[in-house]
Design a protein that fits this description.
elongated; mainly beta; three-stranded antiparallel beta sheet
Length: 52
């Protein structure tokens, strides 16, 4: 269950968008914030000292 104000990536009909959970007319609803969803990249550590 989402709390009011939380955001989530919604996937609908083959597309996706970022939306915020909001209250409209006493009913929780999703409001579109932007097309697409944020993507993060994992960066591997390049330090060799971690193995010594």
């Amino acid at each position: 269950m989402f709390q009011l104000g939380q955001t989530s990536c919604l996937r609908v009909d083959g597309g996706s968008y970022l939306a915020r959970c909001e209250m409209k007319l006493n009913v929780s609803s999703w409001t579109k914030i932007q097309d697409g969803c944020p993507v993060t990249e994992r960066v591997e550590s390049t330090s060799s000292s971690a193995y010594h």
